[in-house]
């Protein structure tokens, strides 16, 4: 099998948006594989948006901050908008205390708000499959 090695981080496609998340353990090798796979998928699939959920990250260091910043820059060059969602208050405090800036990185309070910012909206449907809005 030739080509980039898939990362251990799942990347899902919802229309023209890629959705992924980061866990606590992101070493150099995993980060490079993740970055390569995500940028390849953006280009190959014509993604216009990327949501990176970091709600499971309990700590952040300069390496993860740099990875997020670089990913955002690469995605933007490929025509995709990136939103980082679900940052815990402790992570935000740590970033500020360490003087780390996520330059150019857009954030959202949670994944739902991030997807909304990328143009997705939740439509409530009853079990029959007809949206409630259509019943009005």
Main sheet makeup = 5 strands, mixed
Element order, helices and strands? EEHEHEHEH
Low-confidence runs: none
From the N-terminal CA to the C-terminal CA, the straight-line distance is 53 Å
Mean pLDDT: 85
Strand content: 15-25%
Instruction: Tell me which oligomeric state these chains represent.
Output: single chain
Count of domain modules: 1
- Radius of gyration from the CA trace? 16 Å
Would you mind describing this structure in some detail?
Residues 7-118 form the STAS domain. InterPro entries: Bact_StressResp_Reg (IPR051932), STAS_dom (IPR002645), STAS_dom_sf (IPR036513). The chain has 136 residues and is of the alpha/beta class. It has one domain (11-120): Transcription Regulator spoIIAA (2-Layer Sandwich). Helices cover 37% and strands 16% of the residues. The protein has four helices and five strands. It has a five-stranded mixed β-sheet with strand order 1-2-3-4-5. Helix 1 runs parallel beside helix 2. The longest helix is centred in the first third of the chain and has 18 residues, at 28-45. It is globular, with a radius of gyration of 16 Å.
Describe the secondary-structure layout.
Blueprint: E1 11-14, E2 17-21, H1 28-45, E3 49-53, H2 62-77, E4 81-85, H3 89-97, E5 106-108, H4 111-117
Parallel strand pairs: 2-3, 3-4, 4-5
Antiparallel strand pairs: 1-2
Helix pairs in contact: 1-2
């Amino acid at each position: 099998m030739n080509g980039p090695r898939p990362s251990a981080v799942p990347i899902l496609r919802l229309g023209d948006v890629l959705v992924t998340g980061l866990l606590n353990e992101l070493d150099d090798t995993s980060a490079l594989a993740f970055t390569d796979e995500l940028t390849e998928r953006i280009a190959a699939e014509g993604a216009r948006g990327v949501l990176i959920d970091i709600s499971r990250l309990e700590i952040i260091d300069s390496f993860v901050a740099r990875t997020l910043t670089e990913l955002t820059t690469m995605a933007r060059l490929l025509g995709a908008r990136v939103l980082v969602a679900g940052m815990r208050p402790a992570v935000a405090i740590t970033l500020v205390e360490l003087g780390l800036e996520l330059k150019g990185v857009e954030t959202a309070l949670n994944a739902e708000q991030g997807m909304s910012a990328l143009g997705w909206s939740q439509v409530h449907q009853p079990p029959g499959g007809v949206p409630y809005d259509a019943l009005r």
